[in-house]
Amino acid sequence: MFRSVQSACDARGERWWRSHADWLLAMTEIQRGDPAEAERHALEALPVKRDFADVAGTAMCLEMLATVALATGDPRRTALLHGASERIYRSFSKPQLGSPFFAAMHDDAEKTARTLIGDGAYERAEAAWLRLDGDEAIARALKTEPGPATPGRP
């Protein structure tokens, strides 16, 4: 279903709805146990979310990348990405949008990452990206240099 949404969006040049489909595919793939595909879809969605100033979508993409990092053996990156998403959530809403499902996903990833690297290392890593501004955190998540966002149209 989400792939057909991607195709329909691509045919119409629709980027914002396509980014939703990408994020939903990332959620699907992480649940199926394919973190590489989940990461690919989240990384496709994140710059579009940034360009459209979709703060909720940006935070959710960072959360997804944190879950992917844990699934691929990088618990420190999980903590870093949690810091970035937390900063964004603080600017507009409740963490994980107040969703019990998303909160459980976050809490499970945090608990596992803390177990693997220790509470102190987790908190230092999380705090490091909690201090970043949104553009810098997104650039680091994308593993690129920060730059101005491109204004988009919904």
Walk me through what this model shows:
With 154 residues, this protein is an all-alpha fold. It has one domain: Alpha Horseshoe (Serine Threonine Protein Phosphatase 5, Tetratricopeptide repeat). The chain contains 8 helices and no strands. The protein has helices at residues 2-12, 16-32, 35-51, 55-71, 75-92, 100-117, 119-130, 134-142.
Summarize, please.
With 154 residues, the chain is mainly α.
The level-1 CATH class: Mainly Alpha
| CATH architectural category | Alpha Horseshoe
Structural class: mainly alpha
Determine the fraction of residues in helical runs and give it as a percent range.
over 70%
- Tell me the major beta sheet: none
- Spans of 5+ residues with little confidence (pLDDT < 50)? 145-154
What is the CA-atom radius of gyration, in angstroms?
A: 15 Å
In whole angstroms, the N-to-C terminal distance is 21 Å
What would you give as the CATH superfamily?
Answer: Tetratricopeptide repeat domain
Number of helices: 8
Number of domains: 1
Question: What does the average pLDDT come to?
Answer: 88
